[in-house]
Write a structure and sequence with these properties.
Layout (H helix, E strand, L loop, with lengths): L2 H5 L8 H17 L15 H36 L6 H12 L3 H18 L3 H6 L4 H38 L11 H18 L14 H19 L3 H24 L8 H19 L7 H34 L1
Helix pairs in contact: 2-3, 3-4, 3-7, 3-8, 4-7, 5-7, 7-8, 7-10, 8-9, 8-12, 10-11
Length: 331
């Protein structure tokens, strides 16, 4: 692996080396700004541990996002290859790979930066940090860290949206069997990659409760972005194949209904006619029960598990707070 591949790969995603370098740079930045730990307590915090926790979160999440960007892209490319046997034209899978590997480009950087910085501005207090704050350097570094974090998130979301669109296009051409849609599982797993990325980022959020003080307001904004993002990345790539499955099911049900109408309303006159009627009725029931979303119980349970991990981590932070307070009161 060359130096360029290590820091920014030829496949359009940051390399793991860049994530490591960013981790070191952010640690030095917040240490130099006096946030690790603060010698003077910022006016908007209740303890030095809260400031340290915030700084640690802002040090860890951006490198994590870059690493997830790199690993997530590799996993998406593997899923495309798993789907290749089901795609009639190999040019379609080649196009999907190219779309996933393609660098963001000027438009992607613009929309990713615009969205990320907009999220960041909503979640920061830049004016207060540089006007009324008694510790402008520390507050400024925290606010800068928030802007930088959301900028990275915006870029990653735009890139993963391109990946989701590539899988959606595969869903428009892929071969399928209405009764064997488990073969489409790699298509459904494309969204799970993004759920894992978002869940991993949320797991760093309890660092804000490093002082054993659980604050619900620290998580509301992140959840308001993360929840719809996870739903989008799971469902949108599957919409095309869902519509095709539903249309195929409707077409086949209509054909069975036409055959049933052809038998008339009179009772079956012999064993063969009764057997044919029962076979048609059973086939219609099977068609009615056929799934049109390629999400089986195993995939759904995996998504559910990933979704409950962050709340469990936050509940753990609240439990730590209570235990610490109880120990202090007992002492």
């Amino acid at each position: 692996m060359g130096r360029r591949d290590f820091f920014w790969g030829d496949q359009g995603a940051p390399g793991l080396g860049l994530a490591g370098a960013l981790l070191v740079a952010l640690a030095i930045f917040f240490w130099a700004a006096g946030a690790l730990p603060p010698e003077e307590l910022p006016s908007n915090t209740t303890s030095a541990s809260e400031t340290v926790g915030m700084a640690l979160m802002l040090i860890l999440i951006p490198p994590y996002m870059l690493a997830a960007w790199c690993i997530g892209q590799q996993r998406s490319l593997e899923l495309v290859e798993e789907l290749r046997p089901l795609v009639p034209d190999s040019a379609e899978t080649d196009a999907a790979r190219e779309a996933i590997r393609k660098p963001l480009g000027a438009r992607g950087w613009f929309w990713g930066s615009s969205m990320g910085l907009a999220f960041g501005l909503v979640n920061t207090s830049l004016v207060r940090a540089f006007t009324t704050s008694t510790t402008p350097v520390i507050d400024g570094s925290i606010n800068f860290g928030q802007l930088f974090l959301w900028w990275i998130i915006g870029l990653l979301m735009v890139d993963r949206a391109r990946t989701a669109r590539a899988f959606r296009r595969l869903g428009q051409v892929i071969r399928f069997d209405l009764f064997k849609i488990e073969a489409l599982r790699p298509l459904a797993r494309s969204g799970i990659v993004d759920v894992v990325i978002v869940t991993g980022a949320l797991l760093f959020s309890p660092l804000q409760a490093l002082d054993a003080e659980f604050r619900a307001e620290n998580y509301r904004f992140a959840l308001s972005i993360a929840t719809p993002a996870m739903l989008f990345f799971v469902l949108w790539p599957l919409r095309a194949i869902h519509l095709r499955l539903r249309a195929e099911r409707a077409r086949r049900i209509e054909a069975v209904e036409a055959q049933l109408d052809g038998l008339g309303s009179a009772p079956a006159s012999n064993v063969e006619a009764t057997t044919a009627l029962e076979a048609l009725l059973a086939h219609r029931d099977r068609l009615l029960d056929a799934r049109t979303w390629p999400l089986d119980l195993r995939l759904l349970s995996r998504i559910f598990i990933y979704l409950i991990i962050p709340p469990m981590a936050w509940a753990g932070a609240a439990l730590v707070e209570r235990l610490v307070n109880t120990a202090l009161e007992a002492g």
